[in-house]
Amino acid sequence: MTSLAASLELDIATEERLNRLAAARKRSAHGLMRDAIEQYVEREEASERFKDDALAAWAAYQATGEHITGDEADAWLERLEAGEDLAPPAPHK
């Protein structure tokens, strides 16, 4: 794995908190920061994918008018929760 060195400025209080946490976890402050940044990037990428999927679904609905109702979705989800393995309901206009 290739890596890039980066510097990060923290206020004194945050740096002290980070160092206390690192000591309690028996890890380096650098390792905690790296993990936190990786988790943040993963979470934000997932958020972007969710937004993109929602916008694509909205565009498809506007173009076709096809949808399923809330009741249809709820009934399907209840069956999934009960252990049935079934396809989602077919969209309709």
SS content category: mainly alpha
Helix content: 55-70%
So how many helices? 3
Shape: elongated
Sequence of secondary-structure elements: HHH
What does the radius of gyration come to?
23 Å
Strand content: under 5%
What's the story with the biggest beta sheet? Answer: none
State mean pLDDT (0 to 100 scale): 96
Poorly predicted regions are none
Count of DSSP strands: 0
- Whole-Å distance between the termini? 50 Å
Q: What does this 3D model show about the protein?
A:
This protein has 93 residues and is mainly alpha-helical. The protein has a domain of 54 residues. The protein is 67% helix and 0% strand. Helix 1 packs across helix 2. The longest helix has 36 residues.
Topology:
Blueprint: H1 12-25, H2 29-64, H3 70-81
Helix pairs in contact: 1-2
Supply database-style keywords.
93 residues, mainly alpha, 3 helices, 67% helix, elongated
Compose a concise summary of this entry:
The protein has 93 residues and is mainly alpha-helical.
